[in-house]
Design goal:
With 249 residues, the protein is α/β, with parallel strands linked by helices. It contains seven helices and twelve strands. The chain folds into two domains: 73 residues, Ubiquitin-like (UB roll) (Roll); 131 residues, Rossmann fold, CATH 3.40.50.11690. The longest helix is centred in the first third of the chain and has 25 residues.
Length: 249
Amino acid sequence: MKPVFKYILITIGILLVTGYLAWALLTFPDPKANEVCNRFHIVFLDQSGVKLISEKEVAEMIDNNGLNPMGKTLRHVRTEEIEELLQKQPFIKHTECFKTPSGEVYLFLQQRHPKFRLAGNESFYVDTEKNIIPVSYNDAARLPVVSGLVTKSMAKGELFDFVSYLEENPFWNAQIEQIYIRPDRKIELVPRVGTGIILLGNLKDYEKKLDKLKILYEKGFNQFGWNYYKSIDLQYENQIVCTKIDKLD
């Protein structure tokens, strides 16, 4: 047999086999396709974090949109539509839904991680990826609080970097309780220990300003006390101005 005819016969054979397999897949149903969903698992992948949305809320959302898989045959369970529905929710970062041959459906959820909370004219979270997300009342998260005159662009810009600095520094992460943005855009810090409000000013050179203050805390306040001052001003170069609390008669 000539090579060209042999090649033609092999090609025809491959086409016939491929065609048969395609026809068989369409004609003969998957034996598991008629399996009924008997369990629906909603699994949060980040249980150690803040719970912005509950399993009950997720289940109700799915049910209200006619996508509850329970009691449906696996062929009628629309996993992609479940994923698309939940992916639109502001608290959810990623979803994955799949079926098992035993009739179970798994939904894995990854939530967004709020970094700090804005409490001003508007109240919202800024997450670790600089997304603005609404406040959730499912979990009273212990997060840094920023109040006062804050814009969203500021929250996602220089303020985000400043909060990150405080968070990554063990001393300041433990010391600073709240950040307040005044109407003149200058920043005040409310400490967890002591009575003195820290006047940071603007965010220029905030690392140097806080380094000076840390030295004062460690070498000064630890010796003569934390509660004698109502304000600690870091706005002046090479000095810290402390204002004492007025004595009451």
